[in-house]
Amino acid sequence: MTLTGHSLIAGQPLVGDGKTTFAFNPATNEQLHPAYSLITEEQLTTATSAAAAAYPSFSTLDPETHAAFLDAIADNIEAIGEELIIRAGQETGLPAARLQGERARTTGQLRLFANVVRQGDFRGVRIDPALPDRAPLPRADIRQRQIPLGPVAVFGASNFPLAFSTAGGDTASALAAGCPVVFKAHNAHPGTGELVGRAVVKAVKDFRLHPGVFSLVYGPGASIGQALVADPNIKAVGFTGSQAAGIALMRTAASRPEPIPVYAEMSSLNPVFVFEGALNGSAEDIDALATQYVTAVTGSSGQLCTSPGLLFAPAGEAGDRLAAAVGRAVSACAGQTMLTEGIAGSWNAGAAALGSADGVTVVGKGTTGPTENAPAPTIFGTPVRDFVSNHVLHQEIFGAASLVIRYSSTADLIEAVNRLEGQLTATLQLTEADYPTAAPLIPALEQKVGRIIVNGWPTGVEGGHAMVHGGPFPATSDSRTTSVGTLAISRFLRPVAYQNLPPELLPAPLQDDNPWHLNRRINGEQQLATTYV
Amino acid sequence: MTLTGHSLIAGQPLVGDGKTTFAFNPATNEQLHPAYSLITEEQLTTATSAAAAAYPSFSTLDPETHAAFLDAIADNIEAIGEELIIRAGQETGLPAARLQGERARTTGQLRLFANVVRQGDFRGVRIDPALPDRAPLPRADIRQRQIPLGPVAVFGASNFPLAFSTAGGDTASALAAGCPVVFKAHNAHPGTGELVGRAVVKAVKDFRLHPGVFSLVYGPGASIGQALVADPNIKAVGFTGSQAAGIALMRTAASRPEPIPVYAEMSSLNPVFVFEGALNGSAEDIDALATQYVTAVTGSSGQLCTSPGLLFAPAGEAGDRLAAAVGRAVSACAGQTMLTEGIAGSWNAGAAALGSADGVTVVGKGTTGPTENAPAPTIFGTPVRDFVSNHVLHQEIFGAASLVIRYSSTADLIEAVNRLEGQLTATLQLTEADYPTAAPLIPALEQKVGRIIVNGWPTGVEGGHAMVHGGPFPATSDSRTTSVGTLAISRFLRPVAYQNLPPELLPAPLQDDNPWHLNRRINGEQQLATTYV
Fold this sequence. Notes:
The structure is a homodimer. Chain A has a 7-stranded mixed β-sheet. A 5-stranded mixed β-sheet of chain A has the order 19-6-5-20-21, with no helix packed on it. A 5-stranded parallel β-sheet of chain A has the order 9-8-7-10-11, sandwiched between helices. Helices cover 36% and strands 19% of the residues of chain A. The first copy, chain A, is an alpha/beta fold. Chain A has 15 helices and 21 strands. In chain A, helix 9 (283-298) links the parallel strand 12 (271-274) and strand 13. At the A-B interface, helix 4, strand 5, strand 6, helix 8 and helix 15 of A face helix 4, strand 5, strand 6, helix 8 and helix 15 of B.
């Protein structure tokens, strides 16, 4: 496919009236063609108006067509083939194997949500039948379902050009809910965005849906993003990115005449807690633990939302051995190209600030990579006292850096956890002997994180039904939900009740004969449909 | 019980260090004893700290104790007896029958939530079992549950001294979720608040719960409310009241270092749409419809969240007959005491402004009541053109006033609906012949309201499983939920995932042997527990 450099507004290419921009290959700092024309705020309203116009038909699509549409997007993305992996690699510096995995995750998410649409529980059907003879007052027939909120603005993430971008988790869950999407492409990977955007548009056309169901816009980063969130036709926002940008969107959304929800996934230190028992094995076991940790820190150049930024290791000899092993492991690592020159610059500044903080030492440092923007992975160390008292040590450094914190007691750990801001994840490395020590940490962690992992690593977020990729502020803007996994669909729904409606006026999901074969809550009790469509 | 005039902080009476205030009997404008001492912001932190301290034990209470605690609150409220009805009547001017009904609703809600706690679906258990042999990567065991957000601030409503106040729907759903509550009493009915607050405190003591589970504070309205919402120990807010106050709380909550959700139920016009077929009956039928409408407008002096403020009637002869019947019905109504002198004053100002707006006439006016603060119920009229073009006619007048709008076509109705702000309810009066005309209105209404009623009235909100008492802004601050009915519990919960936790560290609701007998979603499929506790 020849890249055009145009936005895709309701199925039509649109040449932006603003400036143009180019992607850059971060491995070489070379400009990539074509030029992408940026739209203006006036042009943006074409997309948001089309999304609003698409809502009535798209929000009431029959489940089978709706699900098949999501499957078709996945098929169309796969059909792009190697071109997608190559372009995404050029634009992000990410290796092909990582991008192939990310593509599989992206199409897997779309197909997972297709099955969610077929299964239908997200429609939240509740029926309280009439009780005409109830005393002192009869009860009317009351039925409830969840309906889609309306057009959703989705922002592409720098660090996941596929899985958290054009047809990523936010788009997939919004479309599954029945919400049209206006997608703001990330200017660091516009070509990847265009390729995937055309795959989505093809599915919209093939299924003869209203073209406003999906638009992809290129615009000047902050200003068009703010305009998009302020647009009265937009009813919710999905975002993955920096805390500063996410908070700016939250403020805009809250100060609209009609405030709307913002689901921003922003930053996380993803602490790992190593207990004594986990260090009671052989030197090889400790080396293996250290290598796994360093792999989680340095994979994708540390640019994952769930890369561990903190490792709590016990004081004393066993902890010393772990720290030494971590130092050796990271020393053997070469830097990998970061996503952009700007991100590499921020990493350098953050690592320099952490390295010069009181009480912070260098546990180990790798080597600078052979490409541009590939700084040397570095792991720092500090005692828990310094961590607890110095908020500078709590700053996320996006990239391959982490801080080993030495603690002396469970009380130390609980105090440290209580000082943490909200996080996406927390990980415990332990053995059975550590259960009594670790148990009191779990309630404290529940207050701070969205996911607790034992003897694994937080990276590699599984997209399933039970996953939570979320957590208290500032990990996300809204701890009541997740941006990965099927519960993500609930972000884009709201309940409506129907009292005493005749069958002729009831929406299909609420009709007595249950034409969509939905599980339903009748008088408060969950009842299963005997068959699914 | 002798009223003390003190706040109840974590089970202990506290004399406020601020000014004192008295309740007034709005029927006589006479002061009611005792004086209530108002707390300061410093004193408030005692309550919020105690709530935070109560969270660990209360949030993990076993379901049977938890449910029995809610039942006990209901029992204790009933045990107060007539004293509660008398004091509430003195403080609000509401008649005894209404207050008895409201008490039954309050205790009914508590017992409903007790059963929700026993049933347990709100815990949202999802289990994706490990797939160790999956290729290319194994899947870890991942489990999800909903946990309580933390201490909740609840504000008493002026118009429901029982059902939306001390132990009303917000308190009941927050306590059911496992969240401690800090309740800010409404200064118009402090004695009612104290009586109910002591009933809650008795249950806390009898069940030997942490005393911080519930506190009731009296404070200077706006300032202590803002301080409560800004308090870092508070994690969510429940509010029913004016749009100005609700929006002020929303802004405070959004600008905290850690923003928190606000569930504010604020204002609603509750439009009623009368179709031609509903007027094809006899004169008696039309009179009956008019009387029902006027009863809904004037009941509780029109001070219900769901009192209908708009009635769309067709132009032409049938609509003329309805308007005339409405005029006759309201003319026969005497004013009833409003909740406070201030509310009666606002009603007078609002009714005067509406009456003097261009194109607005008086359809009918009742008589001033024999007590103080009992203005004459008034129903105004206007053509749909004026309604659509003049936003002044969209202002809620809290009290016994309503506006009859004459329309000519379904297009008129859809245009009017599209101009409406968010509402709690919309009501259709129709017959089978009207279904084709009414059907296109329903999708438009779904975008504007939380509940659609056919051939009933919006007042008398049923507290069940399917009810939605909510709607788009500014009806509420958050359309994704409801403040009445069992779904209200979801406002105070957030998901947490547990990856690869050993059975010894898993919370009870997530354990394989399902000790709490919960319905669970396994690999995305809902599975019913065979028995409930």
